[in-house]
Amino acid sequence: MKDSNTYSELFNKQKANQFYIGNTTYKERIKKLKKLKDAIEHTNKQAIRDALYQDFKKPQLEVDLTEIYPVIDEIKFVTQNLKHWLKREQVSTPMALFGSSSYIINEPKGVCLIISPWNYPINLTFGPLISAIAGGNTVILKPSEMTPNTSKVMSKIIADLFDENEVALIEGEVETSQELLKLPFNHIFFTGSPAVGKIVMNAASKHLTSVTLELGGKSPTIVDETANIEKAVGKIIYGKFTNTGQTCIAPDYLLIDERIKGDFVKSFKKQITELFSENAEASDSYSRIVNQKHFKRLVDSLEDSKNRNSKVESGGNYNVEDNYIEPTLISVLDEESQLMQEEIFGPILPLKTYKDLNEAVDYINSKEKPLALYIYSKSKKNTDFIIDNTRAGGTCVNHNMLQYLNHNLPFGGSNNSGIGKSHGYFGFLEFTNQRSLLKQHTLGAVDFLKPPYTNLKQKLVD
Ligand code: NAD
Questions:
Q1: Nearest residue to 75 (alpha-carbon basis) of 137, 124, 130, 135
Q2: Residues 6+ apart with CB under 8 A from 269
Q3: Distance between CA atoms of 117 and 143, rounded to whole angstroms?
Q4: ipTM over 0.85
Q5: pTM above 0.90, yes or no
Q6: Measured from the CB, is residue 347 less than 6 Å from ligand 1?
Q7: Which end of the chain is more exposed for a tag (fewer CB within 10 A), N or C?
Q8: Which atom of ligand 1 is nearest to 196's Cα?
Q9: Helix, strand and coil in the chain, % to nearest 5
Q10: Which of 170, 174, 190, 345 gets mutated to test ligand 1 (max ligand atoms within 8 A of its CB)?
C-alpha cells in the first residue's frame, strides 16, 4: 500500500481537473469510450482471457461472454444515447411561475471512487467506469486484491488510455480501500458484499458522499408445479454453475413444489452429466473457487449441512489441491444449516420443498430482500402472486440472470441487496446530479409572492 498522502495528492489532482473533464462534450466522451472499447475488445483481449484463467481457471469462452461482451455492449449502448442524455431537458412550468422556463441539467458529480469485487473483475470495474465517463467525472478505481492478474491488465489499460488526473487505477488490499474511503469523494460506487457495503456507507456518511451500493445476498428460485421441469433445470444449471456459482445474481437456493421434486432431481442429475461429464473437474467449461479462503468457507458450509439431516442429491465432492468443488444439489431440511443462513457464492445449490405457494413466499419474506428472485412457472396467476407478495432488486420469469443483460432495465438491489442502480441510463444517473434550472424571462411576473400581502394578492391565492 502507498502512503495516504499519495492518495490525497491524486485525489486533489483529480479535483483540480474536474471542471475541465466535466465540460467535455458528448463527442469527446464518446471518443474516450470508444478507445476503452478498442482496448478491451482488441488490444488486450487475449491478455484479459489469460489473466482470468490464471486467477481462477475461468474458461476463455466464459470470459468472452460474461466479461468482455457485457462491457462492449454497454459502451455501444451508452455511445448511442449519450447525446440525448446530456441535452438540457426542458420541463413544463406551472402557471403560477408564468414568465419562466424550467430545465434539468445532468451535471457531473465530480471526483468518484469505484470499488469492485473479484468475481467479474472486468465487467464490474469497467461497467461503472463507463457510466462515470459518460457523466463527465474523474475516477479512481480500486479493483479486488483477489484477482491480481486481472487487476494488472486493467491497470495497464487505464494507464495507456488516461492521464491519472482523469482516471487512475490503484491496486491494493483492504487497507488501500480503507485509506481511499477517508477522502471526500463526490460519489462512491461500490460492488461487493452487504457487510463491506455498510463499511463503505459509514465512511461515505462522514462527507455526505452519495453512494451506489451493488451488493449481494441470497437470491431464491421458485419452481412451481406447472413449470417445464427439463427447461427449468437447464436454465438453473446455467445460472448456478456459470463462474462456478460465484455470481451475485446466481440462484442461491431453490424452493420447489414438493410434488415435482423427484422429477427435478432426476432431470438435474441427467443434465449436469451431459454438460460437465461424470467428472466436472476434467471439464474445460468449469472454473475453480477463487482462493483457499473461499474454498474452505464453502466446504465448511457443505459439511455443516451434511451433518444436519441433509441429503446430497448430486455431486458433493471436492479437491482441496485445486480449489475444486463439484456441482452440487443438496436437499436441506434444517433451517439452521449454514447453507440457508449466508449467501453461498459457489457451486452448491440447496433445495427446499413447499406445500403451497404461501409457504414459499413467507419463507422469502422472512429473509433480507434479495438482489434477484426467479420464478419458473406456466401459471400467470402463480407468477403474479409471487411478484405481488415479495420484494426484490430484480426478477426473471422462466430464466435467470438475463435481467442483467437488458440496458433498458435498472440493475441493482433493494436495502440489504443494494442502494441505487446501474446500467445504461440508470448508471449514468448515478454519476450525475440532476440540477434544476429555472430562468425567469418576464420581469416581475411572480412579484405577487413578496410583501406587502395585499387583499388583491390574497384573492389571487384563494
Ligand atoms: P467484498 O465486499 O469482500 O470486496 C469488495 C471490494 O471491497 C474489494 O475491492 C475489497 O478490496 C474491498 N473491501 C473488502 N473489505 C473491505 C473493508 N473492510 N473495507 C473497505 N474495503 C473493503 O466482496 P467480494 O468477495 O469481492 O465479492 C463478493 C460479494 O460481492 C458477494 O456478496 C456478491 O453477491 C457481491 N457482488 C454483488 C454484485 C452486484 O452487482 N450487486 C456483483 C458482484 C458481486
A1: 130
A2: 313, 314
A3: 6
A4: yes
A5: yes
A6: no
A7: C
A8: 2
A9: 50, 20, 30
A10: 174
